[in-house]
């Protein structure tokens, strides 16, 4: 048997501009109102009036701006705008069971980098720990989503949401064009085969194809201890597509990144 060594050089391309996010109501025809925090950040960067930066309002538009003034208040003066080039042509919603420690931090950060549309947290039978103050956890993770969006040049900030129960999460996930349920005991249908079959049946082509509507995909990830068999049965009966992420067992903070990478590659987004 011959083994091959593959060397991959990772590099980054794209606009290297500081990125800020504002609310849609902050965007005017020629200027954008900045928050006190953003103004402090700009001053700490010592940006000159001629230097450009990017402002996003979650509408998929990148506003290229320079520092201006409106009365006594600093504002972002719009010089041009264009559709954000970083938003993928598929809407991937990742469902992640509550996990202990800071594993969720990693899962959220990497999912946002890879182009997730939104993240929904939910309780499962084998969850090791469920936060006592879920809203505090969501607020923390939303902040991580914001920072990851800035770092990766996203055109919007993915929302961190919650489902009240496993059944509630399944009810939401099953409505996607491709509802994927990753089960560690699945040994027949791989993610690759599931994507090829579903995209062929539904004529889904992604951002670079001819389909007008953006396809939606659910990525359902279980807890540290895996799913209870009854949960897998409920998911299948609800219409979820039970698939495998390979022969190796992935942690639930690694699995979202692995699934999203494969999905984005399949749709030509990587």
Can you offer a commentary on this structure?
This protein is an alpha/beta fold and 270 residues long. The chain folds into two domains: 19-83, Hypothetical PUA domain-like, domain 1 (Ribosomal Protein L25, Chain P, Beta Barrel), CATH 2.40.240; 91-266, Alpha/beta knot, CATH 3.40.1280. The protein contains seven helices and eleven strands. Strands 8-7-6-10-9-11 form a six-stranded parallel β-sheet, sandwiched between helices. It has a five-stranded mixed β-sheet with strand order 1-3-4-5-2. Helix 2 (103-113) runs parallel beside helix 3 (134-152) and helix 5 crosses helix 7 (255-266). The protein is elongated. The two termini are 31 Å apart.
As a whole number of angstroms, the C-alpha radius of gyration is 21 Å
- Strand content bin: 15-25%
Number of DSSP strand runs: 11
Helicity range: 25-40%
CATH homologous superfamily grouping of the largest domain = SPOUT methyltransferase, trefoil knot domain
N-end to C-end Cα span: 31 Å
- Quote the average pLDDT: 87
* CATH architecture grouping of the largest domain: 3-Layer(aba) Sandwich
- Strand order of the main beta sheet, please? 8-7-6-10-9-11
- Global shape: elongated
Helix/strand/pairing category: alpha/beta
Oligomer: single chain
């Amino acid at each position: 048997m011959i083994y091959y060594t593959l060397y991959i050089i990772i590099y980054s391309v794209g606009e290297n501009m500081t990125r800020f996010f504002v609310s849609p109501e902050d965007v005017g025809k020629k200027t954008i109102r900045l928050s006190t925090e953003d103004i402090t950040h700009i001053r700490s960067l010592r940006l000159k009036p001629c230097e450009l930066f990017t402002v996003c309002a979650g509408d998929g538009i990148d506003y290229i701006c320079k520092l201006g003034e409106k009365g006594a208040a600093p504002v972002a003066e719009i010089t041009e705008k264009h559709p954000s080039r970083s938003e993928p042509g598929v809407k991937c919603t990742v469902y992640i069971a509550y996990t202990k420690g800071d594993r969720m931090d990693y899962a959220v950060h990497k999912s946002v980098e890879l182009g997730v549309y939104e993240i929904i947290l939910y309780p499962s039978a084998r969850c090791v720990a469920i936060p006592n103050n879920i809203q505090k956890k969501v607020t923390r993770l939303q902040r991580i989503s914001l920072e990851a969006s800035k770092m990766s040049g996203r055109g919007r900030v993915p929302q961190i949401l919650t489902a009240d129960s496993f059944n509630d999460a399944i009810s939401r996930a099953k409505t996607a064009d491709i509802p994927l349920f990753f089960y560690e005991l699945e040994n027949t249908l791989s993610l690759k085969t599931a994507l090829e079959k579903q995209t062929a049946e539904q004529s889904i082509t992604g951002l670079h194809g001819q389909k007008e509507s953006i396809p939606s995909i659910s990525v359902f990830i279980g807890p540290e201890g895996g799913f209870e068999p009854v949960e897998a049965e409920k998911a299948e009966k609800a219409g979820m597509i039970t698939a495998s992420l390979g022969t190796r067992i992935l942690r639930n903070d690694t699995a979202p990144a692995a699934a999203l990478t494969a999905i984005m590659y399949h749709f030509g987004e990587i």
